[in-house]
Amino acid sequence: MQGKFIVIEGIEGVGKSTNLEFIRRELEAEGKRVVVTREPGGTPLGEEIRNLVLSHRQDGMSSDTELLLMFAARAEHLAKVIVPALAAGRWVLSDRFTDATYAYQGGGRGIPRQRIAEMEAWVQGRLRPDLTLLLDVPVAIGLQRAGQRSAPDRFEAEHTAFFERVRRTYLDLAHLHPQRYRVIDASQPLEDVQQSIKEVLTVFLASV
Ligand code: TMP
């Protein structure tokens, strides 16, 4: 039987890593075999691309180059990890996927949505996540939390207005795809966030 594809999205500092581990434990407790992965990355080549797009460069990077690198990493990720795992009946839990491209390269950098949709159709065919959990917090809170971590990468160094556009695009996507999106208020205390996630997973597990 084909596995399910769950993606977690949100701006920086929403608590994706902590909650990803929580979701993995919940799914494994239900007897699912889970592959945890991330974008950009998830394969050796994809992790090299991740280093390229996240590191600061004196010569900068054009938005189109950034877009193409995200999809290059994704093509590798789909071919080597996601598609084989789903076909083997595993559940794939990914820290970000294509909606991050709509949010960051589309909303953030201003690349037209249609161009991203064309690449999505080309690289993924009909494959889309079965469930997307958007951890949502106001930008000021996310950036404050993210700022307490290590030195900012090329995205984390962006201005507040960039992240406001990213957040707005995620919320627009949630409206556009209500059947697969669930928005979690991640500004709540962690126990409440995890309670909300648990409720979403319970309903999802009962529906598949
Ligand atoms: P993170 O996984 O630690 O959140 O860092 C990944 C960064 O890459 C994050 O700032 C969002 C960005 N990103 C894009 O801009 N486009 C994409 O398609 C993906 C997957 C990530």
What is this entry, summarized?
The chain contains 8 helices and 5 strands, in the order βαβααβααβααβα. It has 208 residues and is α/β, with parallel strands linked by helices.
Q: Radius of gyration from the CA trace? A: 16 Å
Structural class, please? alpha/beta
> In CATH terms, what is the architecture?
3-Layer(aba) Sandwich
Q: Provide a count of the helices.
A: 8
- Give the SSE string: EHEHHEHHEHHEH
Kindly estimate the percentage of residues that lie in beta strands according to DSSP: 5-15%
At the fourth CATH level, what is the homologous superfamily? Answer: P-loop containing nucleotide triphosphate hydrolases
- Unreliable segments of 5+ consecutive residues: none
Largest sheet: 5 strands, parallel
Helix content: 55-70%
How far apart lie the N and C ends? 11 Å
Q: How many separate structural domains?
A: 1
Mean pLDDT score: 97
The shape, in one word, is globular
| CATH fold-level topology | Rossmann fold
Characterization of this structure:
There is one protein chain. Strands 2-3-1-4-5 form a five-stranded parallel β-sheet, sandwiched between helices. The model has no long low-confidence stretch (mean pLDDT 97). The protein has eight helices and five strands; from the N terminus they run E-H-E-H-H-E-H-H-E-H-H-E-H. The chain is globular, with a radius of gyration of 16 Å. Helix 1 crosses helix 8 (190-207) and helix 2 (44-54) runs antiparallel to helix 3. It has helices at 16-29, 44-54, 63-87, 98-108, 113-124, 139-147, 160-176, 190-207, and strands spanning 5-9, 34-38, 91-95, 131-136, 181-185. The protein is of the alpha/beta class and 208 residues long. The protein has one domain: P-loop containing nucleotide triphosphate hydrolases (Rossmann fold), CATH 3.40.50. The structure holds thymidine-5'-phosphate (TMP). Thymidine-5'-phosphate binds next to helix 4. Thymidine-5'-phosphate is lined by residues 12, 38-40, 70, 95-96, 100-101, 104-105, 155.
